[in-house]
Design goal:
Distance between the termini: 37 Å
Strand content: 15-25%
Strand order of the largest sheet: 3-4-1-2-5-6
Shape: globular
Number of strands: 6
Length: 160
């Protein structure tokens, strides 16, 4: 990871010091358009039971940065997710911290996105934080587009 990634981590940790674990979701395909080859990521709180009961969806990889555990979720079809990660993830998730109020009770996706950063990583490795509130940014994009956001972290229910 480049130094600019760590600058974004530092900024996020300073802004949300109560979060003791985070999820970095790789390869968020904002527009489902092959012409844009930059990679998008979201960085937000690791929320207890974030991926529900499906064991295979939980992140396989993680690292520690300044006493914070950062889980890395790969969306690449080449990455094979393994079972058995849910217990470790949930034991390190932010279950005691009160997350922002959401439109839909129990909607972990919306909770995540309300405090998640949306970042673009250019081909040259430069990291650009597009929005410090991914929910607001993505909600506007979804209103303007006729196609669905394809990341595993959002669906059309957030617009209602």
């Amino acid at each position: 990871m480049c130094e600019e990634f760590f600058d974004a981590f530092d900024n996020y940790i300073e802004r949300y010091p109560a979060y003791k674990s985070l999820i970095l979701i790789e390869n968020v395909d904002l527009f489902q358009v092959a012409s844009n080859k930059d990679t998008y990521y979201t960085l937000g709180p690791a929320i207890y039971n974030f991926f529900g009961s499906d064991e295979i969806k939980y992140p396989d990889d993680y690292f520690y940065y300044k006493n914070i555990i950062i889980f890395v979720y790969y969306r690449s079809p080449k990455h094979i997710h393994k079972k058995g990660k849910k217990m470790f993830f949930n034991s390190n998730a932010n279950k005691d911290y009160v997350l922002p109020a959401c439109t839909y009770a129990g909607d972990n996706t919306e909770r995540y996105l309300r405090t998640a950063y949306l970042m673009e990583i250019y081909k040259n490795g430069t990291v650009h934080v597009i929005s410090e509130r991914a929910y607001d940014y993505l909600k506007e994009i979804l209103k303007e587009r006729t196609y669905k956001f394809s990341a595993p972290i959002i669906n059309d229910s957030l617009l209602h």
